[in-house]
Batch of 3 targets.
Target 1
Amino acid sequence: MSATPADLSANPLVNVPSYPYGAPPLDIIKTEHFLPAIEHYMSEAKQQVADIKNNRAPATFKNTIEALEFSGRNLGRVTTIFGNLAGAAADDSLRAIETQVSILGVQHGNDIMLDADLFKRVKAVYDDRANLKLTAEQSMLLTETYKMFVRSGANLDDAKKTELRAVDEKLAELATTFKNNTVKGTDAFEKVIEDEKELVGLPDRVKAMYKDYADEKGLTGKWLIKLSPPPIDIAEYSENRALREEIHKARTNVAFGGPFDNRQVVLDIVAARQKKAELLGFADYASFVLDDRMAKNPKTVMDFLDRNEAVYKPAAEEFVKKVADYAQKTDGITELKPWDMGYYSRKLKEEAFQLNMEELRPYFDLEAVLEGLRKHAENLFNIDMKQTTGKYPVYHPDVKVYEVTDKSTGEMIGLFYGDFYARPGSKSNGAWMSIFRNRGLNEEGNNDFSIVTNTCNFAKPTEEHPTLLSIDEVRTVFHEFGHGLHALLAKGDYQSLTGTNVKWDFVELPSQLQENWAKQKETLDTFAKHPETQMLLPADVIQKINDMENFDAGYMGLRQTFFGKLDMKWHTTDSKTIKNVEDFEDAVIRDTWVFPREYGVGTQSTSFGHLFGGGYAAGYYSYKWAEALEADVFSEFEKKGLYHRESADKLKEHIYGRGGTADPAELFHAMMGRELDPDALFRREGLLPEDGLKKPANGNEPKKPPAINTGK
């Protein structure tokens, strides 16, 4: 690297302070550091690429493919830090440059991918691949590099390359606008409660949280409801039907109308994606995306979703009828509305199973859950997690940092950053995993381990109330750590192939798989203790929790299927025929979902960050796709033991360790020794007995489309 210019010497992104294992200097980075560092390292990366392109020696794997893999590392380091802070610790100054940073990144990427002379060298190596003596990982890197160039437009003529550049820059701008509108729209809503009677039914912990929010705003003696963390407790516990309706509408109206309206943004994103797909020779954006996924094409995905709907919809309709009957019997509700569903379904389930879910929360103090997660990881993968204090800088005092080591050798295998509490206005809603660094060789030829983050939005503890999780939130912790494990346990030399750099419809397998352990007594016994009695969560209660989950499995399965179909419809429909977001979404609702969109209620799409602000466009089906895979994988542990050493070692080697170094269908087969059993998930949910599909209450046999094609 060239000498650092004097005006950058005080920039911690360029003149990086020395922290153990290359941990980023998160405590001293300021917004004004990013653009100068990005521009500096873009120049460095451009020179590195120019050196590759202008090399007079014939193109080889080492001087072209591997050289490209190692180029731009400093730029990637800086933009990764920027992306993490933009999601978890943004302020107005950071948001103000987010679009500029995104567009600069797109322009830089296109400068590389659309360079005809550079592509000639890449293609020369690819065309000669049969004569090269490459390892399996090298062969995969060569294939993926070539595909990346082609899918980025390297084969287009100059006029179409110019069009594609403009489309990509527009998409970068639109995605940032969508995300910021959603964050600002979420933060803009505030509901002040002056009479505690309006909060009837809410647990004390929830009322205490809303009281703290009010106190922070100087609203002494009042309560303040916000949309972050998501007010799920109001949907499930509030006896005030009018409040449930108001909050339901507020949540669905985020970025729907008003100053942060995303409706036109969504239409513009869909149109731009279609234009991009057409430029690259595909009929629609879904076809473009799926060409590089396990599913391969939209028909396979729609067959998969149709199969789900065939199983889930009759069960969902049956469940909704039970809830409606219960609401009418208990409170005289003559027409069940969407804002009634959470409240009455919870009450119905609790009554049916004689189980109060709120009374379970003391068993799930977040700190205890994290300790249980550590013990689980140790038992399953023979690793250890040790929390540190003050050794590594963080961007917020709430962030915890753990050193992760191999228990048998003591070798460091990664750093894990956990950021678990909601911060309205600066932190995006939801839960996610990200990285500061992927596993792979560095410039000195050493294999750096991963630096991983998990981000959640749980309510911060108060003096009177610790952070007590629901069982679903416990599973969220295990889910996101499953993604983290995918990166932490990675093996391999090339960062672009390690960790979560896999086919998108495979990426949720390692995460969703971990949720299974959070349902088992053997795992729960390590942390689910009542703080006062120290009693473990009883076995019969754990069984009830799991049975309760199957009680509405059809409803929840259909919900995910609806989201998958909404996604696919957005990305297979000619955008010129779409008049507005509302009518388009309503048509999908009529075909798939069990509730119509109510008057005054916004759309799912205008705040659906997975589709329009993240990476799940034409890929939301992957949650259910991967769930089918993980249900089958977990059956191995159900048969042989939750912590069966041989099975766990296979899981570590083939699913978590290999990343994108091999085809995911091959990895699944290596783990299981056979092809996928497509019915494993339905059986687990109690919807598919051994003798075939469950017959619904209406007596109509559900259709059974072709089974899942894993792509092998």
Target 2
Amino acid sequence: MQTHAFAPLAALPETGGYFDILKVVLFLLCGFLTWYNAAWVDKDTVKIHTQRGPWNAAVFGTGSAFLVVWMLVPVYWVGFAIFAVAYGAAIVSYCVFHNGRVAPAETVLTPAHFRRLFSSKAQTQDEIHSKDRVRLKDSNDKTPPWPTDPAAHRGYQGLQDLLFDAIWRRASDVRLDLIPSQQVKVVYKVDGVERAREPIDPDLGDMIFRHIRTIGGMNPDELRRPQGGHFTASIGAGGKGDRKVDVDVKSLGSTAGQRIVFKLFAEESKFRINEVGFTPDQFKAFEPVVQNLKGVIVCSGPRGSGVTSTMYAIIRSHDAFIQNINTLEISKALDLENVTQNVFDSKDGAATFARRLQSMLRTDPDVAMASDTPDAETAQLVANYGRQGKRVYLGMAAKDVFSALRQYAHYVGDNALVASSLAAVCNQRLLRKLCENCRKAYRPDPALLKKANLPTGENRPFFRPPNPDEIEADKQGNPIVCPICQGSGYLGRSGVYEVLIIDDALRSQLAAGASLQELKAEARKRGTLYLQEVALRKVYDGITSINEVLRVTKEPAAAKARR
């Protein structure tokens, strides 16, 4: 009896049979792999500029969830198989996504990746070059491969060098002129001022032109017909300090040669209304008018003065998720998130700008924008829509607010409609801001301060860019240029504005058909400042220089300002 009572105990496993050290180690290794890959994905999504949250959830969430499933499944190896399939699918999906958006030398889980891991040989020349100086994404948002043909490879390297230099110098426009048997002329526009750069050899230039057309989504073999395309480019180490630009490309040719023009739009060009350059007093008066969402606001200025950027900045101040916002533009400069942007194309001649605007307004947007005022019909449509209690932004070519007001009134042709529809008029220029790293201080002439109606008792210095004889040289005699502005003395631009708010007093004068002089007198009585007066205050605040103010506020040579 005693022997039979203890027999089942003898059948039990020996001590330690419930604990398999190898299985525990494998489970812990898989847990560590899940954590390690999640940390890499979190950093990598920032580096390649993609959505961070969804990928973190897919990779880390899948790994964590199926580790729990593994523990709950009674059969160890079945649980491991379920984890391996589910987590493997998640991490491989991200790797495929990653590989499509990086340079060839940065791919993972590819034959090239394993060769890099297990090879102790020095990198080949192609592998060195594949560490892109400029990270490009073509028109399909894919990373273009480096060409294997030596001539094409050299051309691609030339394109990399050109784009790096243009982005580093903060160029907003790049123009390339290719004339057979001549060096390629290269012109940058930096802070609104054109600068010639070193020319490019014609053979290299021809290859660069071909690469640009290919990356931009254009036909590389079409040399005569105008084409348009786009791509993105970024420089930097792959972190928050990167400079990324959206590049619009236009290509055209003739029997004389070819031309390609880039427009580079950086993140800093996506301004908000409080960042474009209004003075605190102007912004305090203008911002409530913008938020009121009633009436017409005319935004005016000469060609290249930043009117479109200002209208975009104002539109960004509206809630595009709640309000229906529509624009009609001759050409779209940037994409506005959640805004319906209509581009006017007059090539077929079937409809005028005004007809297209009328069609857009029939959709009854809460906020509308017309980039230009080509005729009286456009102004009349805008005025009637504004009188209905809707907000319209109207772009116009004019040298000051009163010229814009006169032109708007002339086009509308009805004083009562002008008075009831108009909310505000602004006029602007773009002036370069001094580089704070290399600007030079000096004492202004008290007579100038008095003439400009600026305080004379504060003994505040003015600033200017350094003169050529003030630039230091190294031991070899080479000038040491400022690393911030690359020696230009200026860094970035700011708008300078005239702002005329249409209050009840001005509205009554407009309805009564008051003269322009009467309107000016009323505006001055309320403290409205002219453009040059506002610009001189920016000099007083150390933002810009006297010479820059004189450059941007001088009367245009043409009789009629063009935007």
Target 3
Amino acid sequence: MNYLKISVAVLLLVTPHVMHAQTDSLNVLLDEVVLEEHRNISALQGSLASGIRIDTKMIAAYPKLFGYTDPMRYVQSLPGVSTNSENTGGLHVQGSETSHNLILLSDVPVYGPAHLLGFFSMFNQDHFPNVVFSLSDKSSFLGGRLSLDPADTIPSGPGGTATVGLISGQGTVTFPLSDRSALTMSVRRSFINTFYRGLLSFEGNPIRFGFTDANATFLYKPDANNTLDINLFYGLDKGFCNYGDYGISMDADWGNTLTSARWRHRGHGISMSTSVFMSRSHVNAHLVQEAAEGVMPSHIHHYGAKFQLVLPHALQMDFEASYFDIEPQSPMIMTNISADPEHEQALLGTAAVQRRFTLGDLDITPSLLFTGYTETSSGKAYFNPDPSLELSYDMYNRGSLTLEGGRKHQYLNQTGMTDCGLPVEFWFAAGPHNDAQEALYASLSYDLLFGGGRYSLSLQTYGKHLENQVEYTGFLFDLLTHPYDLDRNITVCSGYNYGASVMLSRQSGRLTGWLGYSFGRSLRQGDGVRFPKLFPSSHERMHEFNAVANWKNGRWDFGASFVLAQGQPYTPANCMYLISNCVIVDYGEYNSIRLNPYMRLDLSATCNFNRKGRLDHGINLSVYNATCHYNEVLQYLNYDPDAGTFCYSKAHFMVPVIPSISYFCRF
């Protein structure tokens, strides 16, 4: 048991108190007062209402995938966030789209944060030790917020970390340039095609994939009150697949580039932050089916500047100016002459102010966000004031209640045939195809620490009314059989998200971890013609249970994570027929059927070797999907060469169980 024990010797002398006809005197001696509190050693700290901070060093002891512990995967195991299956990446927070979340890398927005079907994020945990997640955010995004920051202290000497496994290897080095500056560099590269080449196939068709990413951070601290950091990031994915039975092959590359410079000042009760940045994400895909050939380029480029000022009396002001250059998915098919690629340019300015007031045990935080937006090609412009209010009531040892509500607008959309970082996903701006997205939201949370701080309980219920949501209703074969029209492939919907979550965590002792359950609906209402009824969104999971645990026993760390969730909805095919070697599909009611429930158990064992000087090192053994449960990941068109017909089949992940071994060190 790890706990903090404080012993204080106290001598109380009560002098006589004289009253008119009576004199009483009392002498009390307390030899010792003991206050006991358990130290929090959990990898996750915080609550669903206040936000959760992830300790990347502690989370390294939890189950790894391919020898790597990704903080985003453990955010996906929190209540209110849908789990990551083998075809779902990103974060679905309280039933919203992955594009509704603001994901920040050194305060720079990231577009497309997933590698390899969501198995890896683009974040190197050793480069970004400061990770904070919140289920809500007061920016111009409708969902949650995930923020990752590099270390902001100057090391006394050089150091670093390294991990080498069968799937990927990564390394981070940090060294001081002077007593006021330091440089941190990280690189990561996959070895999937080297060691798992024979396993990467689908229905006997080969699949090849690899990724590389690199980070660099220059940190300068001229004094205790000022910090300057310059950040660079480069990431690239490359993939190839060949579906011989269908005569289809596709190769693609997609990636991100980020640069930023940020200055922060703290002193005399004032905090300021100023940053300028560039964030670029691109996709280049090449698709061939017999005589038909095409490309699917898309990109989003974001250039911006931010300023934040925090004054005494809990007054905060934020300002941001952004310019967007966007090319939505623009398939160009040789057999179907397409129009010139669409190109969008947009300007967005935001100004926000919030102030916290305290009335006894009640904290009141009103805020107001002003947004001004225009898209040049359509000429549409929007100006929206978005208010919000947060009430927090502290009941001391009985916990705390938090009520939050407000309105938001979002001007960027992401859609496509998947949501796991594949090149069939793309961004587009509000204006040409749909109006700005809007959300009216409210949530009520209860948080309690008990057992001397050993346990925590979080409960939350929420509701959202959404307008101008986008559902992509096209399919891959449509790109080869019809002239491309984005408006024909998307449906603009209203929506309703509502649900409740509970999380119980143990934060100290040999055994730490959390249990979570979520119930949630994510419903959409279409145009009333093609979609006359409410239908579930493509990522909806009504029920989900998660359990994550870590047990320390001497030099060993044993970890396990378990998820059981309802299957995602999909659209069935009523019939299929072949015309001029092109497959034509007649689909049934949209998202009217669900895949079977998703279940997965991951196990991990880490042996920490004896320390040698400054070197901490060890070996990790992990098993992904230890029960070998055949989870369904999608529906696909299957060709039966013997019968000469197509059928609609359920696909499973190419490898039912994935063992991995990796060596890690820290110096």
